[in-house]
Design a protein that fits this description.
The protein has about 375 residues and is an alpha/beta fold. It has a single domain, classed as TIM Barrel. It is built from 16 helices and twelve strands. The strands form three sheets. It has an eight-stranded parallel β-sheet with strand order 4-11-10-9-8-7-6-5. A two-stranded antiparallel sheet has the order 1-12.
C-alpha cells in the first residue's frame, strides 16, 4: 500500500491505472485550458493568517449544506462517466461519501443509474440534471430521482452546448471505449481497470439507455444528447424545472453576480459558483476570484457554494473563510476512485478533512462556523478591476 499524504499522490496512481481517454477526460479543460489552470492556481494567491496560543481542543468541521448535516463542507460534485474511471464508480463514490458524512451528487450522464446507486446506499444522495428539451424524458428522470429518495436536485445551467475539449475529440472519447488500435494498445496496459470492467454489467449511460426510444449504442446516444441540450434555456425554463421537482434545488454554473441575483429571485436553495471546472467557457475568471462579487450581490438570500480547483483542505478553508457555505470536489475524488476504488475516494476525503482540520486549528479556530475573512489575506484587486 503506497503512503498517501495528499491528493497529488492519488493523482499519480490514478494516471498509471486508468485508460488515457478517461484520464484525459477528467484532467483537461476546454480550448487553451486557461480557466482550468487558474481555478487551481488562484487559490494559492490567498494566504492564511496563523494565530497562536488558542485552545484547540474539541474542534469540529461539521456544518450544514442546504439544511443537511455534513461532517465537513465538501460535497462530491457530479462527474459524467464516473463509472468509466473505475468499474461501478458512482456506486463506490456514493458509498464512500455516505460513510464519511458528505453529500454525493449523481450525474445524469453517469454509468450507474439512479436506481443502481439507490440500491447500494442507505441515505439520500443528490441528483444533477442538464437542461434538455425532451420534457417527457425530463419528467420521468426527475420522477425516478424522487422515487429513489434524492434529497436535492442540482440543475446545471452552463451546458446548453458542449465546450470544445481537444483531448476528448482526439481520443475519440466514448463509453465503452471504441475498439481502435490506439485504444486497445492502451487498454492492454490497464489490466486492473480491465478486470473491474469485465466484472460489471454497467458500461454505458444507464440513466438514458433503455429510457429513451432509439438509444442503443454510443453513436445514437451522442447524437441524442447533442440534439436535446436546450439552446433556448432561459430563467423561465429553469423555473419550470424547479417546479417539476418540487424539492430543494441547487443551481450550478453561476459565474456572474447578475445571474446569482436572478437565481436568488427564483427561490433556489443554493447556487454553485462554477465554470464547469474550466470545461465549458475558457478565458473566464476562476471560481474563487468571482466568489466575492457574487457573495456581495446576493448576501444571505441564497446559500452560496463553490466548485473548481479545490484540491486540498486548505482550498476548502479559504473558500469558507471567503464566505462560501459549501464546496465541491470533482477531480480530487475521481483521482482517488481511479487509483484505489472506493478506498481511494475515502482516502481523498480523509486527506482533505485532515488538511482542513489542521489548518483551521493553525488559524486559531475550533469551529468551522467561526471561519471568516479575519482568517485569510486576500490580495488587493483579487477579484479584478475590469473595464
Amino acid at each position: 500500500m503506497p503512503v498517501i499524504t495528499n491528493i497529488e499522490d492519488l493523482k499519480r496512481i490514478y494516471k498509471r491505472r486508468t485508460p488515457k481517454m478517461f484520464y484525459d477526460y477528467a484532467e483537461s479543460g476546454s480550448w487553451t485550458e486557461q480557466t482550468f489552470r487558474e481555478n487551481i492556481s488562484d487559490f494559492s494567491q490567498i494566504r492564511l493568517r496563523q494565530r497562536v496560543a488558542v485552545d484547540m481542543t474539541n474542534r469540529s468541521t461539521a456544518t450544514q449544506m442546504v439544511g443537511q448535516d455534513v461532517s465537513m463542507p465538501v460535497a462530491l460534485a457530479p462527474v459524467g462517466m464516473t463509472g468509466m474511471q473505475c468499474a461501478d464508480g458512482e456506486i463506490k463514490a456514493a458509498r464512500a461519501a455516505e460513510k464519511f458524512g458528505v453529500p454525493f451528487t449523481l450525474s445524469t450522464l453517469s454509468i450507474c443509474s439512479i436506481e443502481d446507486v439507490a440500491e447500494h446506499t442507505s441515505k439520500p444522495f443528490w441528483f444533477q440534471v442538464y437542461t434538455l428539451t425532451d420534457d417527457d424524458y425530463m419528467r420521468r428522470l426527475i420522477g425516478r430521482a424522487r422515487d429513489a429518495g434524492c434529497s436535492a436536485l442540482v440543475i446545471t445551467l452552463d451546458l446548453q452546448m458542449l465546450g470544445q475539449r481537444h483531448k476528448d475529440i482526439k481520443n475519440g472519447l466514448s463509453a465503452p471505449p471504441k475498439p481502435t488500435l490506439a485504444n486497445m494498445i492502451n487498454l492492454s496496459t490497464k489490466w486492473r481497470w480491465g478486470l473491474g470492467m469485465l466484472g460489471t454489467k454497467r458500461r454505458t449511460f444507464r440513466n438514458v439507455v433503455g429510457h429513451v426510444e432509439g438509444i442503443t449504442d454510443p453513436a445514437s446516444l451522442t447524437s441524442w444528447t447533442a440534439e436535446k441540450f436546450d439552446h433556448a434555456l432561459d430563467w423561465d425554463r429553469v423555473k419550470q424545472l424547479m417546479d417539476m421537482w418540487g424539492g430543494k434545488v441547487i443551481l450550478k454554473g453561476i459565474l456572474d453576480a447578475e445571474d446569482a441575483v436572478k437565481a436568488a429571485d427564483l427561490g433556489a436553495d443554493a447556487i454553485i459558483v462554477s465554470n464547469h471546472g474550466g470545461r465549458q467557457i475558457d478565458g473566464a475568471l476562476s471560481s474563487i476570484r468571482i466568489l466575492q462579487p457574487i457573495l456581495d450581490a446576493v448576501g444571505d438570500r441564497v446559500e452560496v457554494h463553490i466548485d473548481g480547483g479545490i484540491r486540498s483542505g486548505q482550498d476548502v478553508l479559504k473558500a469558507i473563510a471567503m464566505g462560501a457555505k459549501g464546496t465541491y470536489i470533482g477531480r480530487a475524488f475521481v483521482y482517488g476512485l481511479g487509483a484505489m476504488g472506493e478506498e481511494g475516494v475515502t482516502k481523498a476525503l480523509e486527506v482533505i478533512h485532515k488538511e482542513l482540520d489542521t489548518n483551521m486549528a493553525l488559524c486559531g479556530e475550533r469551529q468551522l462556523s467561526n471561519l471568516g475573512r479575519h482568517n485569510i489575506l486576500v490580495p488587493k484587486g483579487f477579484s479584478g478591476e475590469w473595464e
